[in-house]
């Protein structure tokens, strides 16, 4: 694709990307929601503990992101310790690169140390009140490392590439992106030997949004926008090739645009894949779902959802889903705890 000068800013509100991760156990959930600053290259983030939001933080990065960089993240939870990897796009010597930052985000159990109250199956809001502890689940994460992971790629990174990321196991990470030839590739980060690239899928629209989710380490679904038709398609990570993708919807509604923002998640208790898209110019959110081995995707929307003026990000665990997006200049959340959707609310 040739040299690509660093993208400049500021960016418009409808160009803002978001990504989120969640760590959860029997009585705690901790969210990290990352998003672009509109006026600088800063990556900002909010943390939430049990749906209670904390202050906005700014990542202190050695490698400067591009204005309006796409974002993707994974989280590792080991012995209740949360470690997040955030991926973003930067430019060095007129070459587009993918960078990662590793964040140490503390213990999921915000009331750690209050042994008589912790691990009792009670919500930690009650535990904290009983133990007199301050909730630390919204404090800033500590930057552990910041590095470029795409230097060994033979086809480089497309300057308009979007990103998606999955953790397949404790030490197995995939970062999905668009290479210089517009194919979707994966960067495989499995060991200390470094990151290696794999060519997965052709026929992709330049600058296509990319989303990925999984039910287990091998059943991975990747979503993208096709170049010829401008429609959303999906493929299974273990069954790759230019002819192996399927259309999610051959006749999407009027809110669909090939430039739509995509994100996807998996709901374990329902064995359900969910992919969401938003068209910031209209504020529409549309969801497609597929349960179990069912092959057809079902479209839906909900009046309780807000009207995003940004990208969208989705996280799921057990039978719960959270959607995050910007609406009326505020970070906003839509909540589903296994039943109906609650009305969209700004993050407190």
Automatic annotation (TrEMBL):
Name under which the protein is recorded: Fucose-specific lectin
Organism name: Fusarium piperis
Family: Belongs to the fungal fucose-specific lectin family.
Transmembrane segments: none
Alphabetized Pfam families for the sequence: Fungal_lectin
Coiled-coil annotated residue ranges, if any: none
Domain of life of the source: Eukaryota
Region listing for Disordered, in residue ranges: 106-137
Segments of skewed composition (Acidic residues): 111-128
């Amino acid at each position: 694709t040739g040299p690509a000068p660093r993208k400049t800013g500021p960016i418009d509100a409808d160009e803002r990307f978001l990504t989120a991760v969640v760590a959860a156990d029997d009585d705690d959930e901790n969210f990290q929601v990352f998003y672009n600053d509109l006026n600088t290259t800063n990556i900002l983030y909010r943390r939430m503990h049990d749906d209670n939001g904390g202050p906005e933080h700014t990542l202190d990065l050695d490698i400067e992101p591009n204005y309006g960089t796409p974002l993707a993240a994974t989280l590792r939870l080991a012995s209740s310790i949360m470690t997040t990897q955030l991926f973003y796009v930067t430019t060095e010597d007129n070459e587009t690169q993918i960078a990662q930052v590793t964040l140490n985000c503390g213990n999921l159990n915000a009331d750690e140390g209050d042994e008589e109250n912790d691990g009792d199956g009670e919500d930690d809001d009650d535990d904290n009140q009983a133990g007199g502890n301050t909730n630390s689940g919204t404090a800033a994460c500590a930057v552990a490392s910041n590095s470029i992971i795409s230097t060994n790629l033979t086809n480089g990174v497309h300057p308009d590439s979007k990103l998606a990321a999955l953790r397949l196991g404790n030490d197995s990470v995939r970062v999905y992106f668009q290479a210089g030839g517009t194919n979707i590739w994966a960067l495989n980060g499995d060991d200390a030997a470094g990151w290696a690239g794999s060519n997965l899928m052709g026929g992709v629209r330049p600058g296509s949004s990319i989303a990925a989710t999984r039910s287990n380490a091998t059943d991975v679904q990747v979503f993208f926008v096709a170049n010829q038709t401008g429609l959303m398609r999906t493929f299974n990570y273990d069954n790759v090739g230019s002819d192996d993708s399927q259309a999610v919807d051959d006749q999407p509604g009027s809110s669909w645009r090939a430039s739509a923002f995509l994100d996807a998640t998996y709901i374990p208790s329902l064995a359900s894949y969910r992919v969401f898209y938003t068209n910031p110019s209209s504020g529409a959110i549309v969801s497609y779902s597929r349960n179990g081995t069912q092959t057809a995707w079902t479209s839906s929307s909900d009046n309780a959802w807000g009207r995003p003026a940004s990208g969208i990000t989705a996280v799921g665990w057990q039978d719960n889903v959270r959607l995050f997006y910007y609406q009326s200049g505020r970070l906003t959340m839509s909540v589903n705890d296994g039943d109906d959707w609650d009305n969209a609310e700004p993050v407190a």
